[in-house]
Amino acid sequence: MTTSSSAPAEALHIVCPHCDAVNRVPAARLREEPVCGKCQKPLFTGQPVDLSSARFLKHIERSDLPVLVDFWAPWCGPCRQMAPFYAQAAQRLEPAFRVVKVNTEEAQDLAARYAIRSIPTLALFKGGREVARQPGAMDVNNILAWVQQHAR
């Protein structure tokens, strides 16, 4: 069996967490620590990416990876309690997922656009569309289980 024109379809668009450039990365090379073609920094850091309103849409609309979002605020106790678990989840979910955080105090437009009524709230986006949402703090195992349940 030969592969000809199907090979490019296996390349994924990955938005750089540093400079927001859109990179094409062969799916088979995701675990090889790819770097951005523009800024030469790692495309995966093992940490949640803090996104402002200006950067958010590019990351959810231009990435071929599912994007897990933590809508949070610095004054929120449960948000601060969940933060280390969310960071642990990021280490385990990358590179199959982009894991990001949105501070709803700084990005009030996004909180309104996505009708975030309680924080923390996790939302999973695929192809620019929200496919699942879960309010409330979770530990790392519950985050991972929830993501796997809704990633299909």
UniProtKB/TrEMBL annotation:
Pfam families: Thioredoxin, Zn_ribbon_Thio2. The keyword Electron transport applies. Residues 19-152 form the Thioredoxin domain. The keyword Nuclease does not apply. GO terms for cellular component: cytosol. InterPro entries: Thio2_N (IPR049299), Thioredoxin (IPR005746), Thioredoxin-like_sf (IPR036249), Thioredoxin_CS (IPR017937), Thioredoxin_domain (IPR013766). One of its GO terms (biological process) is cell redox homeostasis. Belongs to the thioredoxin family. This is Thioredoxin. It comes from Pseudoduganella violacea.
